Each structure stands twice: as structure tokens, then as C-alpha cells.
Amino acid sequence: MYSLFLLNEIIMAEGSKVVIKDHQVIPGKKVKLKDFPTKYERKILSKQEAEEMLDASRKHLAEVQDKLYAHNRYSVLIILQAMDAAGKDGAVKHIMSGFNPLGVKVYSFKAPNSAELDHYYLWRHQLALPARGEIAIHNRSHYENVLVTKVHPQWILNENIPGVESVKNVDDDFWSMRYKQIRRFEKNLAENGTVIMKFFLHVSKKEQKKRFLERIDDPSKNWKFSLSDLKERAFWDDYQKAYEKALYETTTDSAPWFVIPADDKWYARLAIAEIIAKEFSKLDASYPTVSPAQKEELQKAKVQLLAEDGGSEDNKKVVKNKVLLKK
């Protein structure tokens, strides 16, 4: 079994950059998705080794989550964005399976309904934010409001925003304002104890086609495919540009974006788990300390519990010894 950070150790031994730095979007640097690979290119890690490491990381994440919940100071927001069939659902299933479900909530955002459209676009996402000690995973997120609506600006009109009377009003100034609103929204969250990690699963058009065909040919996967997916595929280049702009405008030190090669699902899952674990390690989350007075109370409770219903012979001896010690 491999240790959690063995991947970084392997890469550093090879004299290469740490994998996390390879995937992180640098604030202020223009983003070109062609500069980010869609496949795992290092070839120093096999699929089997990656799966063993992922299993180790799941166990580690479960331990960290327990501390996060007990510490009750921080909350964690994990955002997954991608083109269709990039593997978001699989990432949630495989990486997060080690978490205690009581402390994790997963939300999948689709097109807003009439009630949601009667509020401003961030409203429904605010309702899904994690409480202190909790983790929330947003499978698609508030970024749909600068992605799918960027490709289809006519949908903005459904929001009934004052001053936006036609598509002509959805101009560069409009999008600049919306990026600014998202940065401000995330900054407020971060300043109040929410750790934000944003992942773009970067899949190639060729791999998406392959996965679409698999969904059509495999009866057990038919439900995953929709003709609307094929319709959106026709806007591939537009979506790539929308993602580039969104990543550039909204990656910050407190809410970073990571571009994950998604053609190899096994590597994508490991990379996401590795980054989450690394970000968790920056927190000072710990179990609450117990004062001497509280420890004394715990011992009293133990004595009382052992004495219930007369207790066993061994328990009676423990209670007797406690009484003698007090004398």
C-alpha cells in the first residue's frame, strides 16, 4: 500500500515539478486550455499503483474529515466543473466514498427553475453552502452562470435583471461585473472560514465522443446520454473559450482553480484526492482539547457507568479501588 503523498515523492525524485503545481491555474496568468494536457503524460505511475494510492488517500481524507467536524471552525466547498462525460459523477463516487455521509452533502445543479429564477443567480448556491465542520460538493455550480449562459446569452433574459432588456445588454461589461461578483462571493466565504477548491476536469473532444458512444452502446449507461448532450457538443469551441475566461477571471489564492487531465479517469480521481488532501493539510484543524476538570468528570462518569447494575466482578474492583484512593 502506498502512502498518501508518494506521488509527489516520485515526481520530485524524477526532478519534475510537483503535480499540484502542474494543475493549478496561476492568478493573473492568461489561460489557454491547450497548454493543459487532457491525458496523464508522466508515465511514472501505473493505473494499479494509482488505485492503491487513491485507496490510501480515501482513508486519510476520512480521518481529516473527522477532525474538521470536531474542530467546527472551517467548512469546505469543493466545486467540480466539466464538459459532459468528463467524469464528475465518478470522481464524487470514488474519491468521496471514504467520507462520513453525515458530514458531506452533494448538490448537482441543473437549469434553474421558476422559483430560483425569481432570486438572483447566486441565491440557490448560497442555500447549498456547507456549515462549519461540513463538506459540500457542488457537481456543477454557480459557474454555470458564466459558462452555459456565456455560450447561450439569451438564457440570461430569463433572470429578469433590471437594465438587461435584450441580448445586446449581455455584453463585455455585463460579464466583467459577473466575474467580479463571483470573486467577491468567494472572498467573503474564504474570509469567514470556508476552504474553496475548484476543479475543472479537462477532457478531450475525442474522449468525450468515445464515452458518448459507450453510453449509447451499453444499455446500463443509456440513461446517462441525452440528445441535449450532443447538441451542446456542437458548441465545443465556445465552451472552451468560456472556461478559459472563467478560469482566468476567478482563480485566486483563496479560491484556486485546478485543471485536471480527465481522459484517464484513474489519474483524474487520484489528482483530485491528492489536491484535496494537500489543501486540508494547510488547516490547523484538531480535536478539541479537554481541560483537567473535564477529564475528572470523564473519570467520574466512567466509575458511574462501571457501577451500573452492580457491574462485573472486575468492574466492582475498579470502583472499590477508586473509593479507596479517594480516602
Main features:
single chain; 327 residues; alpha/beta; five-stranded parallel beta sheet; 14 helices; 5 strands; globular; disordered N terminus
Describe this protein's structure.
The protein is globular. Strands 2-3-1-4-5 form a 5-stranded parallel β-sheet, with helices on both faces. The model is unreliable at 1-18 (pLDDT under 50). Helices cover 49% and strands 10% of the residues. The chain has 14 helices and 5 strands. It is of the alpha/beta class and 327 residues long. The protein has helices at 6-13, 19-23, 47-71, 88-95, 114-117, 123-126, 148-151, 172-191, 205-217, 227-233, 236-250, 265-280, 292-307, 313-326, and strands spanning 75-82, 104-108, 135-139, 194-202, 257-261.
Return the string of H and E elements.
HHHEHEHHEHHEHHHEHHH
Please give the count of helices.
14
- Report mean pLDDT, rounded to a whole number: 87
Q: In this structure, how is the largest beta sheet organized?
A: 5 strands, parallel
Distance between the amino and carboxyl termini: 53 Å
* Number of DSSP E strands: 5
Q: Which structural class do the helices and strands define? A: alpha/beta
Q: Rough shape?
A: globular
Spatial strand sequence of the major β-sheet = 2-3-1-4-5
**Proportion of beta-strand residues:** 5-15%
Percent in helix: 40-55%
